[in-house]
Design brief:
By secondary structure, the chain is mostly helical. It is built from four helices and three strands. A three-stranded antiparallel β-sheet has the order 1-3-2. The radius of gyration is 20 Å and the shape is globular.
C-alpha cells in the first residue's frame, strides 16, 4: 500500500511539474516590450473599468492580462511607407478591436487608413496566440 501511494505521488508530482513548465513557457512567449505595454494599456483599461479596474484585473488574472496585452500589442503591425502619400501612422492610436471585422482566418490583411502612408497589417486569425471575446 505504501508502495502504491508513492507511485501515485510520483505520478501526481510529474503531472504538476509538466503543467507548471507548460504554463511558464506560455507566459514567456507572451513577454511584451514595456514601451508597447505603456502605449496600449489605455485600451485595456477601457475594457476593464479604468486604471483601478485594470490594476485589479492584472493582479487577479496575470496570465489573462498578458494574453490580452499580447492581443493589443502583437496581433497587428504597421508596414511603413506602403503608400505614396500621407503621414506616418502612430501605432499608439490603434485600438485593434476597431479593425477586428477585417481580420481573415488564414491570411494577413493590409488596411489602408485614410491620410496615412503606412498600412495597418492584421495578422491572420490562425497566427494569433489569443483573441479576447469582448471585441
Amino acid at each position: 500500500m505504501v508502495r502504491d501511494m508513492r507511485k501515485y505521488a510520483c505520478i501526481i508530482l510529474l503531472f504538476v511539474l509538466f503543467f507548471a513548465g507548460q504554463s511558464s513557457g506560455q507566459v514567456s512567449a507572451l513577454e511584451i516590450n514595456p514601451l508597447r505595454e505603456k502605449m496600449f494599456t489605455p485600451y485595456l483599461a477601457t475594457r476593464h473599468g479604468g486604471a483601478e479596474g485594470l490594476a485589479k484585473f492584472k493582479e487577479e488574472n496575470r496570465y489573462l492580462y498578458l494574453k490580452e496585452l499580447w492581443y493589443f500589442t502583437e496581433s497587428f503591425f504597421v508596414q511603413r511607407n506602403q503608400f505614396s502619400s500621407g503621414i506616418e501612422l502612430n501605432e499608439e492610436i490603434i485600438d485593434i478591436t476597431r479593425f477586428e471585422a477585417n481580420r481573415k482566418p488564414h491570411e494577413d490583411v493590409y488596411l489602408q487608413l485614410p491620410g496615412f502612408k503606412d498600412a495597418l497589417v492584421l495578422k491572420a486569425a490562425d497566427k494569433l496566440l489569443y483573441k479576447p471575446d469582448y471585441h
